[in-house]
Structure to design on (116 residues):
């Protein structure tokens, strides 16, 4: 056999690297701001960022980005509107359970309506 699978992978890898270098992108090692571990920001990811118009480098590794998304999604708290008793969710834990919390409609009526 003229070439092995390993040889083919080397050729493909060098072709991809040459293509990425021609576009100005090459793999970079970055440090995650949450866990402190190094992670690779691939040339393909950089090209994607560039096409989307993103100007900042990623600050977190994939694992920490996933944990951060789950954390944000999980921090909703059920509350009852003090005026209409409608049940809703908020992104904060009410500090004082006796404090009135209003739904958007009741809040706007109570605090944003014009004073007569």
């Amino acid at each position: 056999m003229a070439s092995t699978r390993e040889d083919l992978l080397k050729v493909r890898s060098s072709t991809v690297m040459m293509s990425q270098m021609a576009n100005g992108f090459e793999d970079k090692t970055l440090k995650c701001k949450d866990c402190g571990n190094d992670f690779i920001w691939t040339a393909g990811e950089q090209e994607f960022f560039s096409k989307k118009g993103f100007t900042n480098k990623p600050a977190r590794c994939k694992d920490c980005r996933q944990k951060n998304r789950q954390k944000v999604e999980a921090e909703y708290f059920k509350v009852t509107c003090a005026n209409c008793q409608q049940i809703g969710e908020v992104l904060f834990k009410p500090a004082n359970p006796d404090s009135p919390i209003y739904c958007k409609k009741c809040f706007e009526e109570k605090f944003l309506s014009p004073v007569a």
Summary: Residues 5-68 form one domain. The longest strand covers residues 28-31.
